[in-house]
Amino acid sequence: MVNNIESTVVTTRIRLARNLADYPFPSALQSVKQAKEIVRAVYDAASSVRPFKLYYMGDISDNVAQALCDDHLISTELAANKKYGAAVLDEGEEEDGQGQFSLMVNEEDHLREQYIAGGLCLQRAYNALSVLDGQLSRRLRFAFDAQLGYLTACPTNLGTGLRASVMLFLPALTRLRKMGQVIREISRLGHTVRGVYGEGSAAEGFLYQLSNEVTLGVSEEYILTEVQHAALEVVNLESQARKALREEDEIGIKDECMRSYGILANCAKIAYTEFLQRISDVKLGAALGFLAVTDFSALNALVAAARPANVGLYSDKKLTAPERDVLRADLCRRSLAKLMRGESRG
């Protein structure tokens, strides 16, 4: 039996927006010296808690920056901030091996704390980040107002500064043209649905982000509960849509999924756009029980590893697009062979 939550919820992400009380917001910083003082303060505080590594945006290659964006560890806005921006990334490992901390410094706010984990685990992810936030607050003086809560550059983040989001794989709702209705209903509940990389981005690979809109005047527990409720409702709607899709044309859908699996399992080269289409079919085929793949976390890991920037990290030289296509095909063949044998990732 396919688990609807596991086959629909890709990741959970918790983000906290914070600013240091002794400095102007990043948009008003007056010098590189100020920016580096903030970076050093955050890095020193974080490193006193667990292993972190510091990356200045101006010092890393465009490919590395893009890979970090692709993995949602930093934003495109931070990657573009070569003058002031930095990332403080988790070098340790959680006991369950599923979660990772990342700290974005001098993006829209001085500090964006993040914790990303596989599956639907809003409370666990929040608890993990809340502990780190508490430890950082003992070393850093955050800007806080008794009435407004945490002070942020954008008013929409005032209060808790909390964004709780889940990444959802919604192929059936998309194919049946029901996403517009879903997005309107989610908006009515005070949440938002965006593309895979947030506001203004496309829903590539049938991936959508669901997150809270309101941060002021509500508690963290309220936000987590409401996002959890909305996510489970969308999971249920996607499950119903998959059933309807299968009843509408089972042989046709199965044929699409099996053909895509055959291409990925045997190709000698494959471009990213085609890969994304084919792997989405494979994931749908697995969710519908057409393919004997039940490790959806491994399928999601393959999607991340096959992105252009991440494929480029496998080589010491700068790769051309055709060279990346060959490496991506090799990655597909090896990964799918392991999955079909029931081997775990790694």
Summarize the structure.
This protein has 346 residues and is α+β, with helices and mostly antiparallel strands.
Cα shape: globular
Low-confidence stretches: none
Report the order of strands and helices.
HEHEHHEEEHEEEHHEEHHHHH
Q: Which strand-content bin applies to the residues?
A: 15-25%
Number of strands: 10
Measured distance between first and last alpha carbons: 25 Å
Averaging pLDDT over every residue, what do you get? 91
Q: Tell me the major beta sheet.
A: 8 strands, antiparallel
Q: Percentage of helical residues? A: 40-55%
Largest sheet: spatial strand order = 2-3-4-5-1-8-10-9
- The SS-based structural class is alpha+beta
> How many helical stretches?
12
Radius of gyration: 21 Å
Task: Walk me through the structure.
The protein is α+β, with helices and mostly antiparallel strands and 346 residues long. 47% of the residues lie in helices and 16% in strands. The protein has helices at 4-8, 32-47, 62-70, 76-80, 122-137, 171-175, 179-188, 220-266, 272-287, 296-305, 308-312, 321-340; strands at residues 9-18, 52-56, 86-90, 99-105, 111-118, 144-145, 149-150, 162-169, 191-194, 207-212. The strands form two sheets. The chain has an eight-stranded antiparallel sheet. Helix 8 (220-266) crosses helix 9. It is globular. The model has no long low-confidence stretch (mean pLDDT 91).
